[in-house]
Design a protein that fits this description.
Layout: H1 14-17, H2 25-32, H3 39-43, H4 56-64, H5 71-79, H6 96-105, H7 111-121, H8 127-142, H9 145-158, H10 163-178, H11 204-213, H12 236-240, H13 278-286, H14 299-309, H15 316-327, E1 328-332, E2 338-342
Antiparallel strand pairs: 1-2
Helix pairs in contact: 2-9, 7-8, 14-15
Domain Enoyl-CoA hydratase/isomerase: 1-243
Organism: Asterophora parasitica
Catalytic activity: 3-hydroxy-2-methylpropanoyl-CoA + H2O = 3-hydroxy-2-methylpropanoate + CoA + H(+)
């Protein structure tokens, strides 16, 4: 979702699902607009399964032939067509020290603080972290400052919302981006900075569409004429235009009508068929998981537990081991074996 690249914000439920990804991965993706492809979408927690394209036709045949189309049956059927990583497939980039740096820098509720941490990480002793921080800063520098602040606030608010609430919030934000606060005036994409911009919460979406998608398409990695052009110039008042109940820019937002089933998050949990999240792995380590024994576990026991819970799902072992390397430490439990302990504090890498 390259939305901040075009002066917009991640919508269509992004404030709900991105805010629920492990650590600050969703925050990072929302602000940078970086693209994930193939298996990485699955490994990052966006998808429940990864099926190689060559297997899709036969999978569709199997699914269409199912007599009992219960979710658990569909899950097991799709799982039959998954595959282990091939040698030529690149590993996920956000692991190990770089992932620690990502979670550390993007933990803030202010974009300025994220930028400050990235600046400090440019001088890190680890070449991988230093290079990553420099690349991310270069990307953020090209994004709409207003979009960065709006996207971050939406992600933070979305974490405590139901899917319906998040969609309703996003519809209002989209209205502020696209609809004039003058009655019944829909703003088109103008050819230049005309007065049509004056009644928008921000002109950046029109600017971005024209420059990135329109006939005036500019070169990649070109700094666009965002307004305001600097983070420090995006005031709280500007951000409030997209969120405040009294904002005149939201007054024309239509009502959202959706089917019944997404209204209750309690019954709508497709991600239970995905790889375990960091939070779920943490509950097992701490002994509070419903399938755990309430006592300490070794690393082998942790992997074995989740392979059993997910019925041997492809990718579970790799995910659990990657999380354990970052989030756990091994301690001698006084002769009873080496158990792993969850690190509760996020430190600077």
């Amino acid at each position: 979702m390259p939305e901040t690249k075009i002066g917009y914000f991640p919508d269509v439920g992004a404030s709900y699902f991105m805010s629920r990804l492990d650590g600050e991965l969703g925050t990072y993706l929302a602000l940078t607009g970086e693209t994930l492809k193939g298996r990485h979408v699955f490994e990052s927690g966006f998808a429940t399964h990864y099926v190689p394209s060559r297997r899709i036709p036969i999978l569709l045949d199997r699914l269409s032939a199912l007599e009992n189309a219960h979710a658990t049956v569909i899950n097991s059927t799709v799982e039959e067509f998954t595959a282990e990583r091939l040698p030529e497939e690149p590993p996920l980039a956000f692991v190990s020290d770089v992932r620690d740096a990502l979670d550390y820098a993007f933990r803030h509720n202010k974009v300025e603080n994220i930028i400050a941490d990235l600046e400090s990480l440019k001088g890190h002793a680890s070449p991988a972290i230093a290079q990553w921080a420099e690349q991310v800063l270069a990307s953020l520098h090209l994004r709409s400052p207003t979009s960065l602040k709006v996207a971050l606030k939406a992600i933070r608010l979305g974490k405590s919302m139901t899917l319906l609430e998040a969609l309703e919030m996003e519809l209002k934000i989209a209205t502020a981006y696209c609809v004039s606060n003058s009655p019944m005036m829909i703003v088109s994409v103008p050819e230049d900075n005309t007065r049509e911009y004056q009644n928008l919460a921000t002109p950046d979406f029109a600017t971005g569409v024209r420059a990135v998608l329109g006939k005036e398409k500019q070169k990649r990695d070109t700094l666009l004429p965002w307004s305001p052009s600097k983070l420090e110039e995006v005031s709280d008042e500007i951000v409030s235009r997209f969120f405040a109940p009294t904002s005149s820019y939201l007054s024309s937002a239509p009502s959202l009508l959706i089917p019944e089933h997404p209204k209750s998050d309690a019954t709508h949990k497709p991600m239970k068929y995905a790889l375990p999240t960091e939070d779920e792995i943490g509950t097992m380590v701490r002994g509070s998981h419903s399938a755990g024994g309430g006592t300490g576990v070794s690393l082998d026991e942790l992997v074995s537990s989740f392979e059993g819970i997910r019925n041997g799902k492809v990718g579970v072992k790799e995910k659990v081991l990657e999380v354990a390397r970052r989030k756990c430490e091994v301690k001698d439990n006084g002769g009873d074996g080496n158990f792993i302990w969850w690190k509760h504090q996020l430190n600077r890498p």
